[in-house]
């Protein structure tokens, strides 16, 4: 990568060639990679949870009802009660050693591994960091920090294998809101969904194979559980449901299984309208009543374990299955910072960084 700066007394800074002597130092031009995940509360107390939930549930990509109708309900009723139940859920999975959510811990570990890989390949020409759509570290602060370090080009990578308006789109929206406020905007690319990438499917298959090998009794059915969305999202053109279904089909093909060994379901439904289904919590109970007493559950829509996997799947959905007569429940962790997952993310990044490094 060429540079128009000359060396100054400050590492990484210089004076622009042919610039006046009083021109302020500028950082050496670099490329930034910004990994973006959903978010996390700063703590599990009532007010921390309320701040986080207010930001999350006020996002019209997440709840797209008219604000005049939704906000009074949210601020007056939901946020009076829900911080207590959500705080309890987070406390059950909290990383007490670091006093943070597992999502934050894992995303940081992923970032460190990716940074090491990119440093080995490109030296200090590429800077890697991570941000959260809701909570901290905020997208705005980290994106501005990358620009301050000289990142004139930034690859923005939402860590969602399947595209959805309430996840990928809102992450991109937030990044571009920061760009709208900058005098000097970096060039930016957004990473598309990678739900069908061969390396991603390979990592999913390896995680399933390892979990089955470690189980005391081999599960009869693998439930591939994705976060749900209202059915009207599908009818309005959101590709999430179809991409989830394709991920399951590709995983099934890679494992060489028939239709009796793997099913797709959707979790985290709320509100009165119809959602895509079947609902995971109900479907696992049905499997138990049908005599399928040993199951495994995996959640490929999440790049890192979080409250929706560690608490909802491994506690609530497990309980639903066992109470309906199930005998053995195997949770297959998210890909997290597995080396094959990092390999897959790196393969996606190398393609999207083409022409920049």
Walk me through this protein's architecture.
- With 357 residues, the protein is α/β, with parallel strands linked by helices.
- Among the domains are: 42-91, no CATH class; 198-332, Rossmann fold.
- The protein has 11 helices and 11 strands.
- The chain has helices at residues 46-57, 67-91, 102-122, 139-148, 165-179, 198-214, 231-235, 240-255, 280-289, 307-323, 339-352, and strands spanning 5-7, 13-16, 26-27, 30-40, 126-135, 151-158, 187-190, 221-227, 262-267, 294-298, 328-332.
- Strands 5-4-6-7 form a 4-stranded parallel sheet, with helices on both faces.
- Helix 6 (198-214) runs antiparallel to helix 11.
- It starts with a strand and ends in a 5-residue tail after the last helix.
Chain-wise SSE layout:
Blueprint: E1 5-7, E2 13-16, E3 26-27, E4 30-40, H1 46-57, H2 67-91, H3 102-122, E5 126-135, H4 139-148, E6 151-158, H5 165-179, E7 187-190, H6 198-214, E8 221-227, H7 231-235, H8 240-255, E9 262-267, H9 280-289, E10 294-298, H10 307-323, E11 328-332, H11 339-352
Parallel strand pairs: 4-5, 4-6, 6-7, 8-9, 8-10, 10-11
Antiparallel strand pairs: 1-2, 2-3
Average of per-residue pLDDT values: 93
Q: Give the N-terminus to C-terminus distance in angstroms.
A: 7 Å
Q: Write the element-wise H/E pattern from the N-terminal end onward.
A: EEEEHHHEHEHEHEHHEHEHEH
Going across the biggest sheet, name each strand in turn. 5-4-6-7
Largest sheet: 4 strands, parallel
Count up the helices.
Answer: 11
User: How many extended strands?
Assistant: 11
Task: Give the C-level CATH assignment of the domain at 198-332.
Answer: Alpha Beta
| Residue fraction in strands | 15-25%
Unreliable spans are 1-11
Category from helices, strands and their pairing = alpha/beta
The shape, in one word, is globular
CATH architectural grouping of the domain at 198-332: 3-Layer(aba) Sandwich
Tell me the radius of gyration.
22 Å
The helicity comes to: 40-55%
């Amino acid at each position: 990568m060429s540079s128009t700066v000359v060396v100054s007394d400050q590492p990484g800074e210089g004076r622009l060639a042919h610039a006046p002597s009083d021109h302020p130092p500028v950082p050496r031009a670099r490329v930034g990679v910004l990994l973006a995940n959903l978010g996390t509360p700063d703590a599990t107390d009532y007010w921390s949870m309320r701040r986080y939930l207010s930001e999350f549930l006020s996002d019209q990509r997440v709840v797209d009802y008219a604000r005049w109708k939704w906000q009074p309900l949210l601020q007056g009723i939901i946020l009076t009660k829900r911080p207590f139940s959500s705080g309890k859920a987070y406390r059950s999975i909290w990383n007490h050693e670091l006093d943070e959510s597992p999502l934050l811990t894992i995303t940081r570990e992923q970032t460190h591994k990716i940074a090491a890989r990119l440093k080995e390949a490109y030296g200090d020409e590429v800077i890697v960091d991570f941000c959260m759509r809701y909570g901290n570290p905020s997208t705005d602060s980290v994106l501005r920090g990358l620009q301050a370090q000289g990142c004139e080009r930034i690859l923005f990578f939402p860590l969602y294998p399947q595209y959805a308006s309430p996840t990928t789109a809102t992450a991109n929206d937030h990044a571009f809101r920061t760009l709208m406020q900058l005098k000097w905007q970096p060039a930016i690319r957004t990473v598309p969904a990678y739900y069908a990438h061969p390396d991603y499917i390979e990592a999913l298959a390896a995680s399933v194979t390892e979990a089955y090998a470690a189980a005391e009794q081999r599960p009869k059915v693998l439930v591939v559980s994705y976060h749900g969305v209202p059915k009207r999202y599908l009818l309005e053109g959101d590709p999430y449901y179809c991409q989830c279904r394709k991920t399951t089909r590709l995983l099934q093909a890679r494992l060489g299984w028939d239709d009796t060994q793997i099913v797709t379901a959707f979790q985290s439904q709320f509100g009165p309208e119809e959602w895509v289904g079947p609902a995971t919590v109900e479907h696992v109970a049905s499997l138990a009543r049908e005599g399928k007493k040993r199951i495994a559950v995996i959640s490929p829509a999440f790049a890192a374990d979080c409250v929706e996997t560690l608490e909802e799947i491994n506690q609530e959905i497990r309980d639903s299955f066992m109470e309906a007569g199930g005998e053995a429940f195997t949770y297959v962790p998210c890909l997290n910072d597995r080396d094959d997952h990092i390999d897959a993310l790196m393969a996606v990044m190398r393609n999207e960084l083409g022409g920049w490094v």
